[in-house]
Structures are given as C-alpha cells and as structure tokens.
# Entry
Amino acid sequence: MSGDMANSSAGKVLLTGDRPSGKLHLGHYVGSLQNRVLLQHQYSSYIMIADVQALTDNFERPDLIRESIYEVASDYLSVGIDPNIAVIYIQSQVPEITELTIYYMNLVTLARLERNPTVKAELAQKGMTTSIPVGFLCYPINQAADITAFEAEIVPAGDDQQPMIEQTNEIVRSFNRTYNVSLLKECQALIGKAGRLPGIDGKGKASKSLNNAIYLSDAQNVVEEKVMAMYTDPDHLKVTDPGKVAGNVVFSYLQAFHDDKEELRDLENHYARGGLGDVTLKGILLKDLEALLGPIRAKRAQISKDFVLDVLRTGSKKAQTKAAETLARVRSAIGIDYFA
Ligand code: TRP
# Structure
C-alpha cells in the first residue's frame, strides 16, 4: 500500500514520537514501538522524531540530537515501521508545529504547567527544581501542538505520557471554547501492554540517563552481559533457596517477552519454591530476547544512511503539508487570516 493510500484511508490518525536523545531500548519497544508496528495497518500513522522537544533539556548538546535522529529512525525501520505506510518525520522540519505552540501558550497557566507530574519528575531527576527553563516547562504545550497538528486521536506511548494527553485535551477544549469552533480533536493514549519496563539494575525504569537499558541495536554479546548482570533477588543465594518474583527484573522482562504464559507461571512458582537458579532463568530470558532482537539486528544491517535520510526527507515534507492545513484553519479560527 502506498503512503498516500494510507493517508486517505477512512481510519483515524495515530501519532506518536520519541525524543532523539539516544538510541531506543526494550522499554520503548514494549511501551510503544510494538503497538506502532501493528497499528500502522489500521490507522493513518505519523511517527515523529521530536528534536525540538529534545532540545528543551539538551539545548547545549545539539550534536547528540543530530546523531540520535539517525539512530532513532534506524530503530523505527529495523523494528518494522514501514515508511511506505507510516509517515516518519523530524519535528523541527515542520515549523507549523512551533507556530501552533505559540497560540496554545495563551490557553495554559503557569500553575498548570508546574502541576504536570511527568514534568515535575523530570525536573527533580535533573536537579532543575529552582531554576526552571521556560522552554522545558512548556514542552507539554508543544506536544499538544504535535498531536493536534495532525488531528491525531490515538497516541501510543508509555504511561508517563498520560499527563501530556490530559494536558493536550484541556488545550483542545479551551481552544474550541475560546474561539467557538469544533476544530481541534481530543485524543486518547494507548499504553503499551507492559507499561514501564524496569532497568536491568532494578532501580527504576529503563532509561538512557541511568545507563540501565538494553538497546534494540545492542550486539548479542552485549545483551548477554546485560542479562547476566540483571538484578534478581539478593537473598536468593543458593539455588535451593526460595526466591522472590516481585521486584525481580528477570521476571519483569519474562512477563514482557516470554510468550508461553503458562510456562512462565510454572517458572514463577518454581522460583518462589526454590530449586530454580538465576543463571537458568537468565538463559531462558536471553533466548526470548534473541528471538526478538536477532531479526531487528539483521534488518538494521541492511539499511543505509542514505535510505534513512531519504525516508526522513520525504516524511517531513508530507507531515508539513498536513500540519499546514491545520495551521491555516487555526489562524482562521483565531481571526488572524487577514489576507484570506
Ligand atoms: N514526550 C515524548 C517522550 O518523551 C515524545 C513526544 C513528543 C511525543 N511529542 C509527542 C509522544 C507526541 C507522543 C506524541 O517520549
């Protein structure tokens, strides 16, 4: 099916994206990528590399963002997002989104921005609680523009994105009420089946900044090292000791990646009883992960840099056409279409 056919299909619009501040990992896969691959056949899909948003907390590191755009796009293509079906594009190449952001800013209070729990958690994590950059605080408004510019109704994402969806819908209602139109569409989040995947150290969710993630592009020996280093139950000293399943990272990953759920229940019971060793368990997980990552790695090896750039160039043009249509309607709703 051609991209144009997908765009004109009667289906609703799906939109999602990632900040290009590093390669994508298994947490992204279970939280969102897996859904996107399935849903691209059902919805008109826009997949955005959010470099403008990435700049809000990495503005001094544009090189990282530039490199990561290529990595993230390669991750998309390797997991099976099809550029002939989905529109893959770079946020900064669609400046219409930025203009929408400015208009939406009038509809949001500072107090509301400061209440966003995901933003709060990020500020705390980055130690930015006293001197908050305005750009960062406003990124949820920019994200509302990302979503509404494409009339998206479905947003596959990790559960930390729920507050962004809520804020988007508040902006949508406020805009429609203020300008007395029914122009902007509300959206809903589609949270991945496993929610958050913990980091291999068990200290929090898998993330680049904590250096505890398994990347989609990791070589087989790297995956093996990471699995063998995974946090289990520190009190499970001898194989015969009873072990804890809750909080055990290997089980969290098996719950996300082991397809035979009955067998998984047996493994959990066996571990809890005692008699199932960590190394055996990790071997099972490793096999599951290789079954997933092997084909992704193989596909990645076939993708050239020129092809990736071509996909992004074409996608960004298509995205810009769509966003420009929305922007024209927004300007007209506000009444600033002076020469129309
Ligand atoms: N905030 C998302 C993240 O940190 C990235 C993102 C930007 C996004 N714009 C979006 C996700 C629009 C969904 C829809 O991962």
User: Anything to note?
Assistant: The chain has a mean pLDDT of 93. Residues 3-197+305-334 form a domain with the Rossmann fold fold (CATH 3.40.50.620). The first helix runs from residue 3 to 8.
